[in-house]
Amino acid sequence: MTNSRNQKHMGIDYGTKKIGIAISDDNGRIAFPKTTLNNDSKIIENLKKIISDNKITKIVIGESKNYKMQDNEIMKDILELKKVLETLLEADVILQPEFLTSVEALKMGSTQENINAGAAAVILQSYLDSLK
Fold it and tell me: What's the mean pLDDT in 79-87?
């Protein structure tokens, strides 16, 4: 079991148009919605800035599966993003199941405007809780 103390984590809810971002507290225990980014040509540059500005040590990306637990079509793009982040940013990147995270984010008070960031926080919190 990895000790998450003194590790700041970033959660990512990947979408073809929008990418939700969540950040943990400094001890890597609690996830907070941060922002939603457009998934465009500047996405890697924008992610790099967030990682640098927040001193992120680990990235958790939602693993997209369907009801039969098979990869969704978007999973190919998620794996590509994971590879880019690991290579370009030399970051530790973990996949975490994200089944129904948008529904959970709405239940926790996210609005349609910040649902992507809320879903990223659900993904990240699920990972952080798994470390306990």
Answer: 93
Phi, psi of 48, deg, nearest 5: -60, -40
DSSP 108: T
Give the pLDDT band of residue 4 (cuts 50, 70, 90).
very low
Q: Is 76 exposed, middle or buried (0-12, 13-18, 19+ CB in 10 A)?
A: exposed
pLDDT digits 0-9 by tens, 35-53 = 999 999 999 999 999 999 9
Nearest CA among 37, 65, 41 for reference residue 51: 37
The mean pLDDT value for 52-77 works out to 86
Sheet with 58-63: list strands edge to edge.
31-38, 18-24, 9-13, 58-63, 92-97
Strands 9-13 and 18-24: antiparallel
Closest CA to 88 of 131, 47, 28: 47
Tokens of 28: 């890597």
